[in-house]
Amino acid sequence: MLTPKRYSHYDIKKMTTSFKEKLGQGGFGDVYKGKLPDGRLVAVKVLSKLNGNGEEFINEVASIGRTSHVNIVALLGYCFERSKRALIYEFMPNGSLDKFIYDRHLMQGATHLLWQNLYHIAIGIARGLEYLHFGCNTRILHLDIKPHNILLDEDFNPKISDFGLSRLCTRKESIVSMLEARGTIGFIAPEVFCRNFGGVSHKSDVYSYGMMILEMVGGRKNVDVRVNRISEIYFPDWVYKHLEKDRDLGLNGIMTAEEDEKARKMVLVSLWCIQTDPSQRPSIGKVLEMLEGSISAIEVPPKPLLFSPPRSSTESTTIL
């Protein structure tokens, strides 16, 4: 594991050619394309919004700086110069997952994300989470798993990024204390914003993972006001009803029996992941076992208690 290198703000300006090429925008700042002195391309996140003493910056350096895994984006360096703060990551040529999954049948280049690609991405993200939850000396809870925070390399291998909301806890610790909700509406586990559902733990990431995989499968936001029928607005509810009645899911792009099996497997696993009670959700290791095993071994999960949110919840918003 390589220790991230510290750079000055002058270095950051130089490697980004004075912030010439903007790659994207996140909750805490803008991301620019850059190049290290050795020629490696990088993505430089310049933090503009700092909570208190810059908690999200400290979280990111402390958590991702401890990691080394093929499905976790590598932090190569950082800048900490008074109020000037930046994070330098390996460059991911295909950007974030979100631009490939929504309305993918309308997009140019959609052929890149065949069902085998989606299945491969789902497994890669699960492996990355398993490493964070059980493979590090200090357990890392990401707490903001969503398509925007999954980056894709040149071969569409997924890497988990953006650890600004993460929490570190000991391997033995199963529940973490939190004074405020954190995450993105539509992906936040119920216990994160209401303690009556249980404590925040690695199962909270499992919930977010399940919601994300459902969006990958549906090729749409889980809550979609563009559809004509009210019964189809909330995709997890719609897909559960179709599974209950053993109907064809009618998912876009499925051509073979093997693709149909992969899609159904992803749906079943996702519905287990979004169970309202954290104790009913599988660990991420069990998720991998189900995804890589036989579909006949996966039971249809019970219907979660919290379904069909009000229409006012349709916008994804980050809660700090």
* Main pleated-sheet profile: 6 strands, mixed
Q: Structural class of the secondary elements?
A: alpha+beta
Q: In CATH terms, what is the architecture of the largest domain?
A: Orthogonal Bundle
Cα radius of gyration in angstroms:
20 Å
Tell me the strand order in the biggest sheet. Answer: 1-5-6-4-3-2
Helix content: 25-40%
- How many independent structural domains? 2
Give a count of the beta strands, DSSP E runs of length 2 or more: 12
Low-confidence stretches: 105-111, 307-320
**SS field, number of helical segments:** 9
**Overall body shape:** globular
End-to-end distance, in Å?
30 Å
Task: Indicate the proportion of strand residues.
Answer: 15-25%
- The CATH class of the largest domain is Mainly Alpha
Kindly report the CATH topology of the largest domain: Transferase(Phosphotransferase), domain 1
Looking at this structure, what is the CATH superfamily of the largest domain? Transferase(Phosphotransferase) domain 1
What's the average pLDDT?
Answer: 82
Outline of this structure?
The chain has 320 residues and is of the alpha+beta class.
List the topology elements.
Blueprint: E1 5-7, H1 9-15, E2 22-25, E3 29-35, E4 41-47, H2 55-64, E5 75-81, E6 84-90, H3 98-101, H4 115-135, E7 138-141, E8 150-152, E9 158-160, E10 167-170, E11 183-184, H5 190-193, H6 202-218, H7 235-244, H8 257-273, H9 284-292, E12 318-319
Parallel strand pairs: 1-5
Antiparallel strand pairs: 2-3, 3-4, 4-6, 5-6, 7-10, 8-9, 11-12
